[in-house]
Amino acid sequence: MSAVLQKADTVLSARELETYRDDGFLTMRRVLASELMQRLNDVTDRLREEARHLTARTKHFDLAKGHSAERPRVRRISSPTELDTIFREIAFDSILGDIAAELVGGAVKFYHSKLNFKSPEGGAEIGWHQDWPVFPHTNTNLLR
């Protein structure tokens, strides 16, 4: 494991856990090293550039209305963990899983990943929907 992705024994303070339980969210800054964030940004930019020449939705790329090579508009990249190792590193070898486990108070399971984009000139709206019916109903402690 690289030094950038080293895990800590304890990730969250008692105060952070209390804040999460009281407010339902937790803001943490600089959890991932800046060089790792730069790699994520670079790979994400590369993937969006790869989508520039698509003319229709694919397994991984959902295109917004008006998408073209001249004006690319990627709405979503589904399962980026299948497209570049950096996303697998973040999902499985970084501190993020440890944070999630501490927030839910036990083991966590990786369900899936996606990157959603909102274009500065008006992003595509994702219509109202419920994800709840597709999840197992034995554990309501979910993080998104």
From TrEMBL:
<keyword id="KW-0560">Oxidoreductase</keyword>
<protein>
    <submittedName>
        <fullName>Phytanoyl-CoA dioxygenase</fullName>
    </submittedName>
</protein>
<dbReference type="InterPro" id="IPR008775">
    <property type="entry name" value="Phytyl_CoA_dOase-like"/>
</dbReference>
<dbReference type="Pfam" id="PF05721">
    <property type="entry name" value="PhyH"/>
</dbReference>
<dbReference type="GO" id="GO:0005506">
    <property type="term" value="F:iron ion binding"/>
</dbReference>
<keyword id="KW-0223">Dioxygenase</keyword>
<dbReference type="GO" id="GO:0016706">
    <property type="term" value="F:2-oxoglutarate-dependent dioxygenase activity"/>
</dbReference>
